[in-house]
Design goal:
Strand content: 15-25%
Shape: globular
Radius of gyration: 23 Å
CATH class of the largest domain: Alpha Beta
Number of domains: 3
Length: about 450
C-alpha cells in the first residue's frame, strides 16, 4: 500500500463497523499513546496557544477524528519520522484535535467533509494556511501528499517569519463570524452534545464528528424553507470543477488545464505557480478552495498572480451564475443525508458505455444505476416506493439531462419542494417502470 495514503486519512468517524466497546477502546488507547509519546499536544488547543506564545513558534493544528474503521487513519508514526516532515514539524507547536466539540467556528472554518484538516497559524489567530482536501477513497492521491504537506509547512514558516508585517494579507484567510460559535450550538446538535468529550462515560457517543457540522447546517436550511443555499450545498468547490488541476505535490502549481474549461478561458497554463489568489498567498489546494468558497453562487471574478517562466502574470477567472453546480458533491459524507432528503435513500452511480449499449440507451443523457437502496427508516423512501438495487434511472422529474447524481440532488433539493412528488422512469431487466419519489424534509 502506498505510504502516502497511509499518512492521510478521513476526518470521518465511521459508525456501525465495529462494536461500541471496540471503538471506545480505540479512542482511549489513542489518547494514551499520543500523550505518552509527547510529540503532539492532545486535544488541548489552549495549551497549544500558550506554548506558541511562550516560544514564538507557529501553531500547527491537525483535526482528525478517531477511530476510522472504514478508512485508513493518519499514521502519526510515519508523519513523525518522514525525513521531509519531521524537521519541519519540530518548528511548530503541534496540537491534535480529535473531535469538533467546542471547536471555535470563527477560527476553524474549513470543508468539514474533507479527508484531513490542518491549520497553520499564529498564536494570535492569524491563519497562515490550510491543508487537506476530500475524503473520496478513489481520488485521495489527486489532492494530498507528504511532499505537498512539507511544502505547505515550509510556506507557513516563511509567512510566520514575515509576521506581523503581512498581517493585513493574512486577515483575508479568516472568514466572517459564523451564526453559531461552536458546533454544539447548531440546532441539530444542541442539547445532544457537550463542549468536551466525555471520558467519564461513552467517549464515542459524546463526539461531534466534523461532517455533522455541515449536516446540521443543511438540515437547518431545509427546516426553514426547503432550498439549500448553494454555498451550503456546494461548499469549498474543488478547483478541478473549473478545469484547474493542481499538483498535490506542490503548494499551488497547475498540473494541467482541461480543454474548454473556465480555467482555460481565464488563461491558466500547465506549470503556472499561483503566487497570489484574491490577494492571498496559497499554501495548498485547500487554500485555493477557501478563496473559491467565498465567491457568490451568482458569479464573480477571481484574480490570480502566477509565476510563469520566471515572470509574473495576472490571470482573471470569471465565474458565471450557477458555477458552483459544476462541482461534484456525491463523494461527501454529508451526501448520505442529502440522499435521504432528495432521493429516498438511493445511492446512484453512472453506468458504463458498454452497459448503455447493452440497455439500448443513448450515448449521453441520464443513466444512473441504483447501487444501493436504503433499507431502514428514514432512508427507505425509495424502497417503499418500489425501487430496487440495479434499477437504472433514465428520467427524473421529466428530465433526461441530469446526468450526475449531484445534478439529481440539486434538482430535488432546490427545484422541488420538500414533501413533493417526483416522477421517475427506470429500466429494470430491459423493461421501463414508472415510480414516484417523495422528497424528504
Amino acid at each position: 500500500m502506498n505510504r502516502a495514503w497511509i499518512a492521510f486519512a478521513v476526518v470521518l468517524l465511521a459508525a456501525g463497523v465495529a462494536d461500541a466497546q471496540t471503538r471506545e477502546e480505540k479512542v482511549r488507547n489513542d489518547k494514551a499513546k499520543v500523550e505518552a509519546a509527547g510529540f503532539w499536544i492532545y486535544n488541548n488547543l489552549a495549551k497549544g496557544i500558550a506554548d506558541a506564545k511562550k516560544t514564538g513558534q507557529p501553531l500547527l493544528v491537525a483535526l482528525r477524528c478517531i477511530p476510522c474503521e472504514d478508512c485508513v487513519k493518519l499514521d502519526e508514526e510515519l508523519v513523525e519520522t518522514d525525513p521531509k516532515l519531521r524537521p519541519l514539524l519540530e518548528k511548530f507547536v503541534r496540537v491534535r484535535i480529535v473531535s469538533a466539540n467546542g471547536l471555535d467556528l470563527s477560527l476553524f472554518q474549513f470543508d468539514t467533509d474533507q479527508s484531513f484538516a490542518v491549520f497553520m497559524l499564529n498564536a494570535d489567530g492569524a491563519i497562515y494556511g490550510r491543508y487537506g482536501t476530500r475524503s473520496d477513497h478513489s481520488h485521495w492521491a489527486d489532492d494530498v501528499s507528504i511532499e505537498g504537506l512539507a511544502k505547505a509547512l515550509d510556506g507557513a514558516l516563511a509567512l510566520h517569519a514575515a509576521y506581523p508585517a503581512n498581517k493585513a494579507e493574512l486577515a483575508l484567510k479568516r472568514g466572517p463570524a459564523p451564526e453559531f460559535a461552536v458546533p454544539e450550538n447548531l440546532p441539530r446538535l444542541k442539547g445532544k452534545y457537550g463542549s468536551q468529550l466525555n471520558y467519564e462515560g461513552n467517549v464515542v457517543q459524546s463526539c461531534i464528528h466534523c461532517h455533522q457540522i455541515g449536516d446540521s447546517l443543511k438540515q437547518m436550511h431545509r427546516d426553514k424553507g426547503g432550498a439549500l443555499p448553494e454555498d451550503v450545498l456546494f461548499p469549498y468547490p474543488h478547483p478541478k470543477a473549473l478545469g484547474l488541476i493542481l499538483n498535490p505535490r506542490e503548494r499551488a502549481t497547475v498540473l494541467r488545464v482541461e480543454s474548454g474549461s473556465l480555467a482555460e478561458q481565464a488563461g491558466f497554463r500547465a506549470g503556472d505557480e499561483i503566487a497570489k489568489i484574491a490577494g492571498q498567498t496559497p499554501l495548498s489546494i485547500a487554500d485555493v478552495q477557501w478563496v473559491l468558497h467565498h465567491v457568490p453562487a451568482a458569479g464573480g471574478s477571481v484574480v490570480a498572480t502566477v509565476q510563469r517562466g520566471g515572470k509574473a502574470a495576472d490571470v482573471k477567472l470569471e465565474l458565471p451564475a450557477g458555477w458552483r453546480r459544476r462541482d461534484d458533491i456525491a463523494w461527501r459524507a454529508s451526501s448520505w443525508e442529502l440522499r435521504r432528503m432528495a432521493l429516498g435513500g438511493l445511492f446512484l452511480k453512472s453506468i458504463s458505455p458498454e452497459l448503455r449499449a447493452e440497455q439500448k440507451l443513448p450515448a449521453s443523457g441520464l443513466a444512473l444505476k441504483a447501487e444501493h437502496v436504503g433499507q431502514y427508516s428514514p432512508h427507505d423512501g425509495a424502497k417503499r416506493a418500489g425501487f430496487q438495487a440495479g434499477d437504472v434511472l433514465i428520467s427524473f422529474d421529466g428530465r433526461t439531462d441530469l446526468t450526475r447524481e449531484t445534478d439529481l440532488l440539486h434538482h430535488a433539493l432546490n427545484v422541488v419542494k420538500p414533501g413533493n412528488q417526483i416522477p421517475v422512469v427506470v429500466l429494470r431487466n430491459g423493461q421501463k417502470h414508472n415510480f414516484t419519489l417523495t422528497t424528504g424534509k
